[in-house]
Design brief:
heterodimer; A: 5-stranded antiparallel β-sheet; 5 helices; B: Transcription Regulator spoIIAA
Chain lengths: 150, 119
């Protein structure tokens, strides 16, 4: 039987690029309470990186003194992540989620594509000039290989 | 992230080590663009065997260099991808744009073949 874990963390950090790594490493450590495959762990790290990068680049337009809030909830083998900014918001969420849509030619517009590919569910709530909340959900598949030997 | 740059046979070789995310893209872009100009290299060989993480910021700056090399009629080849980042490459569609080899040796073979073809 896999472990049943119910837990919650909340992290607030400045909207600096350096904190993108902090956010994904924190979530990787948090979710490692479950028996998780390396593949799932990598996918979660990418999704977190995308959501936090979006908050910094788009939400806060690279202003480094704003606050990003990240909440992680483990309910059984489900991970729910909320990444929240109080930035400029997204006027058209559907358009922002389209593949290859980007406001910057050096960016791919793949942020939401990666989030959608690597998580089971991606929800976006946004209000112009109020901010954006991205809710990412993933069912963690038990790491059967490691469970067999442990 | 750290970068090791070398050039030979009209090719700029870049070895990337560490996390390739939002923080690293500025340095990557500046150093590669500057080195391409200084060495007058037409091709780009990107060795990713020692990267520990990549997201769409990293993919974006790789695609930016690809466009630049293509505009200069050069070739770009990636080598040394690991299983952890292969899915990212698949989802991003980067594999349909440029060759991705397991080793640097294979990458050189491909670069030389294509140069010969183009000659």
């Amino acid at each position: 039987m896999g472990k049943i874990v119910n837990n919650k963390i909340k992290l607030e950090f400045l909207s600096k690029g350096e904190n993108v790594a902090l956010a994904r490493i924190t979530i990787a450590a948090f979710v490692s309470q479950l028996e998780i495959t390396l593949s799932d762990l990598e996918e979660i790290k990418v999704a977190v990186s995308e959501a936090v990068s979006n908050a910094i680049i788009h939400g806060y337009q690279n202003k480094p003194e704003e606050i990003v809030t990240m909440t992680g909830i483990l309910k059984g083998n489900t991970l729910i992540l909320e990444i929240v900014d109080q930035g400029i918001g997204i006027p058209d969420i559907q358009k922002a989620m389209e593949p290859a849509y980007s406001t910057d030619p050096e960016r791919t517009g793949l942020g939401f594509v990666f989030m959608q590919s690597f998580m089971n569910e991606v929800k976006v709530e946004s209000q112009v000039n109020c901010g954006t909340k991205v809710i990412l959900t993933k069912q963690i598949n038990p790491d059967l290989k490691n469970m067999a030997v442990s | 992230m750290s970068l090791i740059l070398n050039s030979k046979k009209n090719t700029l070789i870049i070895r990337v080590r560490g996390d390739f995310d939002l923080v690293s893209v500025h340095e990557f872009r500046e150093k590669i663009d500057q080195s391409l100009e200084e060495t007058m290299s037409q091709n780009l060989l990107l060795d990713l065997s020692e990267i520990t993480f990549i997201d769409s910021s990293g993919i974006g700056v790789i695609l930016g260099r690809y466009r630049k090399v293509k505009a200069n009629h050069g070739q770009m080849v990636i080598c040394g991808t690991q299983p952890a980042i292969e899915k990212i490459f698949k989802v991003s569609g980067i594999i349909s744009l440029m060759p991705i080899c397991s080793t640097e040796k294979e990458a050189w073979k491909l670069l030389e073949q294509n140069t010969f073809k183009g000659a």
